[in-house]
Design a protein that fits this description.
Elements (H helix, E strand, L loop, with lengths): L2 H13 L34 E7 L4 H15 L4 E7 L6 H10 L4 E8 L6 E10 L5 E10 L3 H17 L7 E10 L2 E8 L6 E4 L3 E8 L5 E8 L2 E8 L4 E6 L5 E6 L5 E6 L6 E6 H7 L4 E3 L7 E6 L5 E5 L7 E6 L4 E4 L6 E7 L4 E8 L2 E8 L11 E2 L7 E6 L5 E9 L6 E9 L5 E3 L7 E10 L4
Parallel strand pairs: 1-2, 1-3, 7-9
Antiparallel strand pairs: 3-4, 4-5, 6-7, 6-29, 7-8, 9-10, 10-11, 11-12, 13-14, 14-15, 15-16, 17-18, 18-19, 19-20, 21-22, 22-23, 23-24, 25-26, 26-27, 27-28
Helix pairs in contact: 2-4
């Protein structure tokens, strides 16, 4: 490996957290949210939640598991709290009003399972009643395979979330992240949105890192780093085929795909320092070869491109003041504007729902999460809003497409609170509550939540 290539690798790794963090252990999985060891000021008061009763109308093991999935899903929203009750029927108006008045509950969830002639089939009926008005807020029958019970529960939760809050849930989306095995071996894990059911998705030789989802196809991009070469690879999760996209000298990583899938901004280090390039599908078809146009042209290192819906670009670079900052480029005029000020600012993630970015910034020696509203780009200065304040570095942010959650790597204490290691966590933006989703001694990084639902079983 050349010294120049090694320097670029080390630099890009620092921008997006280290490829080489140590520790190795197995993730312990459970069907519920793991205990949170989060330190600092980021917890909010538990107030304003809708209290709900859950009634299982028949005694069934699958139904009990389903209830647990739904309860865990809706708890992470910090909008609902639950209590299990017994009943063999749906209550009438008077009984619901008693629940509302005496037990201060808002909704009653009634769930019932049905036997089906198909052994592998599972039917769940759910009725949600407003305890004050007795109105039926939601009623439906869901059917699926028993082996997909968890995903069936996630689907029910998505429906409940949209009906009762008007907001889209993230329960059917999937999470990928990197897991450290050894100095030159990193694998990519895939799980449900809260880290459960995690298993290896990419486990070949080398450092498999920096995963990125396609906007509209079940494709995951990742970089495979070998001792003397790096490869940008596209994994089609429906066909399980992994195809090399590019393997230029230096780094090949961090593609950001336009919404129509025709353009891709990515980071290449063909000339020594890393620059942002643009791949244009239509132009490549005309030339009958892949065409990469260099966008940034400076002496610094440029990484973490985001191709915005309006065709402009967000990226991170140290070309101006020697430490990473977040920049905006108008692609029509090529005008570049620095958005952040002061200390180390890197790893931007874009939220289409809010038209904003989330990034990590050093405050008093600790990486904290910040956000910035891109609707303010026409103003002379843009406000940088700090989202987290507690101990422990928070890096590699990824905003869920509904704009309500931020996944990130969190250097958190273990159960003994004597050691710290990077784990995957999620911040509820509205409540400010953080849930740590993984555990163990092995270091995790680069969480990315899928845009599409259930891309891989």
């Amino acid at each position: 490996m050349s010294l120049k290539f090694l320097k670029v690798i080390i630099f890009a790794s620092c921008f997006t957290t280290s490829f080489y963090a140590a520790d190795n252990d197995q993730i312990k999985q459970s069907d519920s949210i793991k205990k949170t060891y989060f330190e600092g000021k980021d917890f909010s008061a538990q107030a304003g939640k809708s209290k709900c009763f859950i009634f299982c109308l028949n005694d069934d093991e699958n139904l009990a598991k389903m209830v647990q999935v739904i309860e865990d899903d809706l708890k992470i929203t910090d909008v609902f709290e639950f209590a299990l009750k017994k009943s063999d029927r749906i209550f009438d108006q008077k009984e619901h009003f008693v629940l509302f008045e005496k037990e201060q509950s808002d909704y009653s969830f009634y769930l019932q399972s049905f036997q089906d002639s198909k052994i592998d089939s599972l039917k769940i009926k759910i009725v949600i009643k407003n305890n004050y008005s007795n109105a039926t807020e939601f009623e439906n029958v869901f059917e699926g395979k028993r082996k997909d019970l968890v995903w069936l529960g996630h689907n029910i939760s998505n429906n409940i979330m949209e009906v009762l809050t008007g907001k889209k849930g993230i329960f059917m989306q999937q999470l990928v992240y990197c897991k450290f095995i050894s100095q030159w071996h990193k694998v990519i894990m895939i799980s449900d949105y809260r880290g459960n059911g995690a298993h290896e998705l990419v486990s070949g030789k080398g450092i498999n890192s920096v995963p990125t989802w396609h906007q509209s196809s079940p494709i995951l991009f990742y970089t495979k780093l070998m001792p003397s070469k790096s490869y940008l690879i596209a994994a089609d999760l429906k066909t399980n085929k992994h195809k090399i996209v590019c393997d230029f000298d230096g780094l090949n990583m961090q593609p950001s795909v336009s919404q129509d899938g025709k353009k891709v901004a990515l980071c290449l280090a063909k000339t020594g320092n890393s620059e942002i390039y643009l791949f244009d599908k239509d132009e490549s078809e005309k030339l009958k070869k892949r065409a990469y146009k260099q966008i940034t042209k400076n002496s610094g290192n440029n990484v973490s491109p985001i191709y915005l819906p309006n065709g402009n670009l967000i990226f991170c670079s140290d070309f101006e003041i020697g430490i990473p900052q977040i920049y905006h480029m108008d692609m029509k005029t090529n005008k570049v504007r620095r958005l952040t000020k002061g200390s180390y600012s890197a790893a931007p993630s874009y939220c289409n729902e809010r038209n904003s970015i989330v990034y990590t910034k050093v405050v008093d020696g600790i990486f904290q999460l910040f956000t910035m509203d891109l609707n303010d780009l026409d103003k002379k200065s843009i406000k940088e809003e700090q989202l987290t304040f507690g101990k422990g570095d928070k890096q590699d942010p990824c905003v869920a497409d509904n704009g309500d959650y931020i996944y990130f790597s969190y250097r958190c204490p273990d159960s003994s609170k004597k050691n710290r290691t990077m784990q995957i966590a999620v911040l509820n933006i509205a409540s400010k509550n953080t849930h740590v989703l993984t555990d163990g001694k092995d270091t995790k990084s680069f969480p990315k939540l899928s845009i599409l639902e259930k891309v891989l079983s």
